[in-house]
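Q&A log
Question type: sequence-to-structure
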Amino acid sequence: MSEAVPAPGSEVGIVQPDPNRSIVIPVLGAGRSGTSAMTRGLAALGVDLGDQLRQAGGKNPTGFFEDKDVLAISRRLKQTLGIRGHSVRLLDDSEFATSDMTRLQAQATRTLGQRFRDTPLWGYKYSRTLRTMPFWRAIHEALDLDVRYVLALRNPLSVARSRGQINPQRGRQVWSDMEWLVNVVPYFHLIVGRPCVVVDFDRLMRHPTAQLARVARGLGLPLGDAQQAGIHEYATQFLKQDKPRTRFSREDLLTDPSANRWTAEGYSLLDQVAADELTLDSPEFVARWAAVEQAVADLRPFLAEFDHMRAQNARARWNPASPVREIQQIYRDLKAR
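Response status: OK
Response body:
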């Protein structure tokens, strides 16, 4: 069955390349949403991902496609912010303006500048880049980069099931949906106005050639013989190793009683962009997305309390003086006799 190339519609404000500026393409999206597969797709289009990639393995046997320097910066960023991968509290703008943050931004700017300043077209991926976008935007501006985004999207029902294979607790729909919201919504407004293509994971799996052509068109990237060859190799070889186990429709999510209403609404809007039914600057998208943003903002106290209670429970589980640990020690003592 041949792949139909979608009509343009998802691209916003395509700017012709400036030969004096490097183009950088950050891959955004919640974890387990196909960000790795999408990043590998950018490589097929000729986007330089660097020569220091994290090794494949663990939860991503086909590859993470994460630069080790970007990964190290991201880990220090999380430490500076006091968050972990599963944290769901909303971040304050003031947290990105501390002296520690300024020093980390300066270090990151030097590192990425030395690595990629003379690279005309490069990209990077880390699943919490959008959650911490004020930090990354400051680096983009300091390096005077031409920034163009790809947002990897996947149905939150599939995200939860994929996450649950790694961590059953985080794979619970209510927990996974909260992570989706805080990783996608709060700083989404910072990427609006730049070229951005939203790519649905399931569509990418079914029609990789058409979807990568759509990405190239939406980001103003060339599609010459080298790129066509890269797309062919990606579609016929790489994706054979990366087939999704679950697929759900937009309707499945909207009718699932366990799904968060605002996660379902946010995903549905972005999925309409990915299907070229809406654009990021269309009045309907803008109005409905504003309601999602406000709903997430209203959840601030709840999300902070959720993180607080989870931290309290974690400390109780690992406290040597807790009854559970005492019972475990008694059991070990009895076995040793």
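Response note: Residues 23-251+259-298 form a domain with the Rossmann fold fold (CATH 3.40.50.300).
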